Amino acid sequence: MAVEEIHAEMVSSVWKVLVAPGAEVAAGDTLVILESMKMEIPVLSERAGTIGELHVVEGEVLQEGDLIATVVPA
């Protein structure tokens, strides 16, 4: 299976990072929480696996389409 790439869906800032590279995640787990227009937006993994790379830090401003993380399938 291919590596899952998780991208920002809108301009937002990274409010909280909940995972680190190497962490095991299940489908539906929250990886990071973004903030946009005073709303908290959880970013979820679509499949189970291991966090391969994390491309964001708390406080960073993201543009639509920016890469947040990769998940290597279990």
Automatic annotation (TrEMBL):
UniProt-recorded name of the protein: Acetyl-CoA carboxylase
Presence of the UniProt keyword Glycosyltransferase in the record: no
Domain Lipoyl-binding: 1-72
InterPro entries on file: Biotin_Carboxyl_Carrier/Decarb, Biotin_lipoyl, Single_hybrid_motif
Keywords: Biotin
Cross-referenced SUPFAM superfamilies: Single hybrid motif
